[in-house]
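Newbie here. two chains, one complex. Structure please?
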Amino acid sequence: MEIDPFIFRLSIFILSIFIGYYVVWSVTPSLHTPLMSVTNAISSVIIVGAIIAALSGASDSIFNTSSIFGFIAIVLAAINIFGGFLVTQRMLQMYKKKKDKKK
Amino acid sequence: MISANLSAIFYLVSGILFILALRGLSSPDTSRQGNYFGIAGMIIAIVVTFLSIGNFSTSLIYVIIFLVIGGAIGAFIAFRIPMTAMPELVAGFHSLVGLAAVFVAISAFLNPEAFNLGSVSDIKLASLIEMSIGAAVGAITFSGSIIAFLKLRGIMSGAPITFSGQHILNLILGIGIFVLIFYLCKTQSSNIFWTVIIISFLVGVLLIIPIGGADMPVVISMLNSYSGWAAAGIGFTLENTALIITGALVGSSGAILSYIMCKAMNRSFVSVILGGFGADNSSDNKKENKDQKPVKSGNAEDAAFLMKNASSVIIVPGYGMAVAQAQHALREMVDKLKKNDIKVTYAIHPVAGRMPGHMNVLLAEANVPYDEVFELEDINNDFANSDVAFVIGANDVTNPVAKTDPKSPIFGMPVLDVEKCKSVLFVKRSLSPGYAGIDNELFYKDNTLMLFADAKKMTEDIVKNLD
């Protein structure tokens, strides 16, 4: 009997939770704010769904009810992707080590 | 057009890059590289999606236009946002992820053919369950984050809003969602689908309104987690590995942060969710004996004198520092002290600020090197060997009551052992209690000198007096 592909996806899902668990525990507490903004950015990979949704209306008309939801979702996710990664970058640039500079 | 197998492999690659992005955050040195991994993962995911659809008609141009519009808005926000507003920003971004999940689910429901999920009113059962769960969690994330945003922004009062029967109502609505999803699977009715979404929006609002301002670090982490689960739900619907991996990562990340925050406040997750903290009316009887207890107060000159003659100073910043925007003045003060060969370090409590790691970002923005900033467990033993503790904008996290009085609502919460310092300088506007609504015993200790002023102004005055 063949295994349902859903089971494979479920396996990936559960293993990823474990990876997430161990990876996130190793994140230094001083970087918890960048952690939140970067997780925000990567969860916007949901944009792939939005793109599929937006392109679905192409055969008859570009804008139908279903694709309009897709287009709006693209904008929302894109705000998050650019905003999330850039603000993370901006924060990380600020974390500097002590320099033994002489004033 | 690339084959489904090839694109699945690329999605896996982008999932792995996202894991590396989080891994990079284990140290500030590797974090920037980690962020680039994250960006690379996102680009791969988007490009592969374009290629796998293989539809290069005019609609593609619109997709790119909308992408650029969103990207421009996002970039604009990212560059303009002040670091003190990070909690609001993150809450706002969570709401967008939630809403995007809802919209993708709606789109998939209206046009399942495009997603290979069957046809209208004959959607595959598993897909229907996945998309409705994704939509429900997304909707809760959206409305919950909006409330969190409004509270953090101060548009809505941070005070908990509670009414009788609240928890029962939430429970009924929660069960209602599951019952409706069950009927949705039986009937494929679009009306039920819309009802599920509307009820979920309502649940999001009801979940967050009873939670008080001091619990915001938990709320933000929790919503972070929800946004991940929503993405994972959509990932199952779209059979997309990148989304499933990412959703799981973000979901567990938010859950761990919530756990850390709860532990730092010695509160159970359930009690935070049930809310109402800080609304106790027990503070009234404490006010009476407060007036009788003697408090030593001083001015900037006294503070400068004390610090100048110290050999080591520990700074304890809190949310009040962020509100007063005192971090730059503080840095100036520290620079002066260091010139006098005084050792200065910073002690940060996990729940200082309104989100995990908030204080660290603010100090980093003020050019404080991160290796001078220590977490609670790393620095707590140093207070006994230090001359001066400078508490600026923190309150409850320094309250010795948490260690001594089992009746106190914050008993058992890990606190900074500030009182063990030879002398304590406590910058505060008044003697009013903090968010927990309890009096801080530290105010009345013999070695405490209260500096009643705005944090920024006081720090600036101290700087002048240090010359």
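Moderator note: The longest helix of chain A spans residues 65-94. Chain A touches chain B through 84 residues (CB under 8 Å). Thread marked as resolved.
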